[in-house]
Amino acid sequence: MGSRAKARWTAALLGFTGLLCIVLGGLMIVAVPSIIKQQVHKNVRIDPSSLSFSMWKEIPVPFYLSVYFFDIVNPKEILEGEKPRVRERGPYVYREYRHKRNITFNDNDTVSFLEYRSFQFQPDKSSGSESDYIFMPNILVLSAAMMMEHKPLGTRLFLTLTFGTLGQRAFMNRTVGEIMWGYNDPLVNIVNSFFPDAFPSKGKFGLFAELNNSNSGLFTVFTGIKNFSRIHLVDKWNGLSKVNFWHSDQCNMINGTSGQMWAPFMTPESSLEFYSPEACRSMKLIYKESGMFEGIPTFRFKAPDTLFANGSVYPPNEGFCPCLESGIQNVSTCRFNAPLFLSHPHFYNADPLLADAVLGLHPNEKEHSLFLDVHPVTGIPMNCSVKLQLSLYIKAIKGIGQTGKIEPVVLPLMWFEERGAMEGEPLQTFYTQLVLMPKVLHYAQYVLLALGCVLLLVPVIYLIRGQERCYLFWSSNKKGSKDKEAMQAYSESLMTSAPKGTVLQEARL
Question: What is the pTM of this model?
Answer without folding.
Answer: 0.83
